[in-house]
């Protein structure tokens, strides 16, 4: 979950919103059209949503490694794995999945 609320991620979100707003304002001044707001800001929303879904996929991919390492350690009995560790990893996935479902 820290992936989505880290400083670089939030700065990028702010940068993207500012660039989209500046571009939309400039374009509407240069070539005004009744559908400009929908077309420009709608396209920016589609681009941002695609970017965000990629970030969710990266977060899920990053979760796989530690989770399956934990499962392998538990099954091979190479390390003692507590049930709290297992549920902690599952709750991490639940948080990422919640972000994925809500953001669609």
Automatic annotation (TrEMBL):
GO terms for biological process: peptide transport. Coiled coil: none annotated. It holds the Pfam family SbmA_BacA. One of its GO terms (molecular function) is peptide transmembrane transporter activity. Signal peptide: none annotated. It comes from the Bacteria. Keywords: Membrane, Transmembrane, Transmembrane helix. InterPro entries: SbmA_BacA. One of its GO terms (cellular component) is membrane. The chain crosses the membrane at residues 12-29, 35-54. This is Peptide transporter.
């Amino acid at each position: 979950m820290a992936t989505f609320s880290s400083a670089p991620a939030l700065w990028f979100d702010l940068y993207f919103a500012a660039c989209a707003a500046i571009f939309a304002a400039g374009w509407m001044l240069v070539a005004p059209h009744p559908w400009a707001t929908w077309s420009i800001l709608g396209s920016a929303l589609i681009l941002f949503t695609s970017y965000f879904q990629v970030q969710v996929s990266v977060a899920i991919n990053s979760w796989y490694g530690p989770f399956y390492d934990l499962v392998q350690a538990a099954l091979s009995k190479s390390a003692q794995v507590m049930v709290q560790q297992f549920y902690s990893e599952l709750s991490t996935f639940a948080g990422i999945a919640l972000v994925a479902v809500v953001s669609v």
